[in-house]
Amino acid sequence: MKILLGILILAVIVFVHEMGHYLIARLNGIDVVEFTVGFGPKIFGWKTKAGTKISVRLIMLGAACVFDDLDAENDEDTDLATLIANSSFRKANVWSRIATTLAGPFFNLLLAFVLGLFLMNYIDIPDTTITGIQTDGAAYAAGIREGDKIISVNGSRCYLYPEVSTAVELGVGHPLAIVYEHEGQRHKVEVVPKMNEQYKRFMIGVEFGGGPAVAKGPLQIVKSSYLYVRYMVRMTFASFRMLFVGQAKVSELAGPVGAAQIVGEEYDSAKAAGPLAVVVSMLNIALLLSANIGIVNLFPIPAFDGGKLLFLIYEAIRGKPANSKVEGTIQLVGVGILLVLLVVVMYNDITRLFMG
User: Fold this and answer.
1) Which helix (H) or strand (E) element contains residue 318?
2) Neighbours of 72 (CB within 10 A)
């Protein structure tokens, strides 16, 4: 049941992503050959007035928006470069294609924001005002006091307390340039985090929040949702930065099964607190995954939306499309890399599932 819940959440997120591509494509007059809900054998389907085949398939794991007719019966000898050159998507205006490509990630971020609007009615994420400070901590030694507000860490603006704690942890003990506000005046100090032996991570000895919950109006909820999604986006970039600099391991990458397992663990943790806690926890996971998928898809990797955008931006600047054979080759290489990555994350997922 828990794994199915995780799969359902992922399926909805992927569906929203592909629906973004579909809607913006149609608004720009781009033909969509097929929009599939699920994968595998087709259960049933129909054709829209615009000629798009709508297919509902057996394995309900997301969706796909198909712009190019890859039906092998059309011509078994047709190669990828020819398909790219002759596709209805390729023949559309370059700015329409850029908008269509961006639509999937944008819809994921929009979904995250909408989920945040619901979530912020039930949770309160403190800002960066310090409500407690350890007198033997690094922040106190640098002159920061209770009641002060942290403005930025290493030049990066912080609005929510997790942004501060994340910046401290990513610093792995290196000096941090912190701007804080004390009695209306801003000050800049250098703070060197200390390793906390109890929690096994670097800390600067400050606490946030802990006060009574404050009722939020509509505008405050909108602002809180935006800031929370902003934080999740920054966390996505930070996670990949940790991977590239060696602070995180490839074995920690998770795929669909791993994400579903995480959903299950969150479900178990929340169910003791009641149904509302479960709903809030699932909304939070869905928000995180949707923001993560939206941003990762913008990475300039062939076969990702970001990889397609590179070719489109090149075309917009140059005034004509890239060589279809070159693009086809790069896309094939990208698909190969993606398949290797999928094998790695699937191995990680299976290892976690059966070995704990």
Assistant:
1) helix 305-318
2) 8
